[in-house]
Amino acid sequence: MYWWGPIVLLATFFGMEFMAWATHKFVMHGLMWHFHEDHHVPQTKFFERNDVFFLIYAIPSWLCIMLGMMFNNYVPVWIGYGIAMYGFTYFLIHDVYIHRRFKWLRDVDHPYFIAIRKAHKVHHKHTGKDHGECFGMLIVPLKYYKESKIAFNRKYGK
């Protein structure tokens, strides 16, 4: 087996955070706002137009894995797995933990996860496509982490 495969996978996974940030800021809040707009207003339906962005990441992941396997070129395969791993993590954090679209994860009492929720709330305080902030998912501004750590330590007496 190739020793570099997991390195490519992890590099892709972490690189996807920057890709997701750029896509969110410049595509979702730009050219494709029509699809993302319903995500910024209270929803009564389970599915949103915003869910189309799943395909924007799922299709390249699938193509990398499939074509890499077909042509015995394993770099794209590991890249595809890295994209898929990020997508699964994004789904768990964004759809399950933050927006509670599924009832699997309740409050995870840790400063990092509290900071993620805070940054996302700050992002959603803007209902329009302009004046947005906090476009990332896993990397949050340090000020939110510091705030959540202070609150966490106060709550648990540390």
Order of helices and strands: HHHHHH
Strand content: under 5%
Question: Ends: how far apart?
Answer: 46 Å
Low-confidence stretches: none
Given the structure, what is the number of helices? 6
Which structural class is indicated by helix and strand composition?
Answer: mainly alpha
- Overall number of strands: 0
Shape: globular
The averaged pLDDT comes out at 92
Quaternary structure annotation: single chain
Major sheet characteristics? none
Global Rg: 17 Å
User: Helix fraction?
Assistant: 55-70%
Number of domains: 1
Could you give a short description of this structure?
The chain is mainly α and 158 residues long. The chain has helices at 5-31, 33-36, 53-70, 74-98, 111-124, 142-156. It has six helices and no strands.
What does this structure look like?
This protein has one domain (5-156). The protein has 6 helices and no strands. The protein has helices at residues 5-31, 33-36, 53-70, 74-98, 111-124, 142-156. α1 packs across α4 (74-98), α3 (53-70) runs antiparallel to α4 (74-98) and α5 (111-124) packs across α6. It is globular. The model has no long low-confidence stretch (mean pLDDT 92).
Highlighted features:
6 helices; 158 residues; mainly alpha
